[in-house]
Design goal:
The structure is a single chain. This protein has a single domain, classed as 3-Layer(aba) Sandwich (Rossmann fold), CATH 3.40.50. The protein has six helices and ten strands. The mean pLDDT is about 95. With about 200 residues, it is of the alpha/beta class. A five-stranded mixed β-barrel has the order 5-9-8-6-10, surrounded by four helices. Helix 2 runs parallel beside helix 4.
């Protein structure tokens, strides 16, 4: 890595997720329709759900520069009924169809187990069944594939997810204000994680 290469790459599945983080990043400027640069790194979005678009974005970004750390940031649905909209977690246990991976925990954020699915888990009953089957607190469509890519390439990766919808209520856009409020409240912790201090 040369001294001019960014230290941290942050990937967000959707632009709405990326904008939430861009609002707190130091010296953050939008570079084009799908990426931002900030002091110490780059933020990019696939603007699509699922593993394939995320991994294609990762490949494009790694073809341009090398990074000390790569973070997946974005929304996850709650499987655990006690979780509230806006809570942030470091997802260190990742499940997908009977497979499991682990990533290191991060300081300043509570750890959580997350299940990656191919289709949204939208009903309360479906989420309850998944929570019991996998002993996971969160559900998304990308985290396992990201962790698998990080481990397969020997890269330093982390997954940070915020609760976008509870086990009882559906996903909505625009995101509820509690999410940006909590991200702002945890700004210092997030910046420490991103800068790897």
């Amino acid at each position: 890595m040369s001294p001019t290469d960014p230290q941290t790459l942050i990937l967000a599945p959707f632009k709405a997720e990326a904008r939430l983080l861009a609002a707190i990043l130091p010296d953050c400027r939008q570079s084009d329709a799908a990426s931002w640069s900030f002091k110490g790194g780059r933020l990019a979005t696939a603007n699509a759900a699922g593993g394939a678009p995320l991994l294609a974005l990762l490949d494009r970004e790694l073809a341009q520069a090398s990074y000390r750390r790569i973070i997946l940031f974005g929304a996850a649905g709650a499987l655990a009924p006690e979780l509230q909209i806006g809570q942030l977690f470091c997802c260190n246990k990742l499940f997908y169809v009977g497979r499991q991976l682990e990533l290191p925990t991060l300081p300043d954020l509570p750890p959580a187990a997350i299940l990656t699915v191919d289709q949204p888990a939208s009903t309360r009953d479906e989420r309850a069944q998944l929570a019991v089957k996998y002993n996971a607190s969160l559900v998304d469509m990308e985290s396992f594939f990201f962790a698998e890519a990080m481990q397969g390439r020997g890269l330093n990766g982390a997954v940070i997810r915020f609760v976008s919808d509870t086990a009882e209520q559906a996903f909505v856009l625009p995101f509820p204000q509690a999410i940006s409020k909590n991200i702002g409240k945890l700004r210092q912790q997030l910046l420490r994680i991103i800068s790897n201090d």
